[in-house]
Amino acid sequence: MDNRLESLKTYLQEQLKGYKPFTVTLAYDELTLEVDSDDWLEVASFLCQDSVLAFQQLSDLCGVDYLAWGRSEWDAGDASSEGFSRAVSGRPDPSDPFDFDAVEGESAADAVPPGQRFAVVAHLLSCRHNRRMRLKTFCKDNHFPLVPSLVGIWASANWYEREAFDLFGILFTNHPDLRRLLTDYGFIGHPFRKDFPLSGQVEVRYDPEQKRVVYEPVSIEPRTLVPRVVRGSADTAAGGQDNG
Which of 73, 133, 141, 234 has the highest count of CB atoms within 10 angstroms of its CB? Predict the structure, then answer.
């Protein structure tokens, strides 16, 4: 374990005592600080301006959707030769208490406890001290995810936050130009939300008769594909097929 990260964890725990409940986790040589969204802006400013920390560079920011976190249609590590057919037929795992075929859209979102669906994660770098850390917060409203913008602290947050808005629908208050960044102008929905259909909402094609691009309903049938399974050496030695 990196002693510098241990010292940094202790320092953060001492300096942030006056804030709402927070957690500092050190695992796999990575330090993660999770704070309440009300403290998001103030803690971020502290991390940047404090001379002991000096996290003056935001190297990345992204959204996370925990809608189906901890749940799985099947155990990919124990997939059988019938895995593909099972995926096409869409039969749910009887051991999974949460059936996404039964509850979709808003109902699925309601199944997640308030304030535990959407998170914003920022990765920080201190060039002065040559160390990194992760800053994380959860949006309090699952249906209207909202956190303050970090653009006023790190200018590089501008396009990162636009990307999180475009793909996850997370809103950032006081952002100077919160527009879609990756999807088309007329795109509806947010592709990285786990309740967004993998096949999308519409198809786009050029119509030679109308001489313009037209939008049409999706013509392909949605389905889930089995993830690639890497089998261990024991399976191969026993005569099994190695898909790795």
Answer: 133
pLDDT tens by residue, 57-80: 999 999 999 998 876 554 555 555
What domains, with CATH codes, occur in the chain?
3-65+115-177 (3.30.460.80)
The torsion of the CA quartet 232, 1, 22, 58, rounded to 10 degrees, works out to -90
Rounded to whole angstroms, how far apart are CA atoms 74 and 54? 44
What is the arithmetic mean of pLDDT over 107-112?
A: 70
**What average pLDDT is seen over the chain?**
82
The percent of the chain in helix, strand and coil, each rounded to the nearest 5, is 25, 20, 55
Token pair belonging to 84? 């593909």
Give the burial string for 39-62 (b: 16+ CB within 10 Å, else e). Answer: bbbebbebbbeeeebbbeebeebb
Cβ atoms of 165 and 182 closer than 8 Å: no
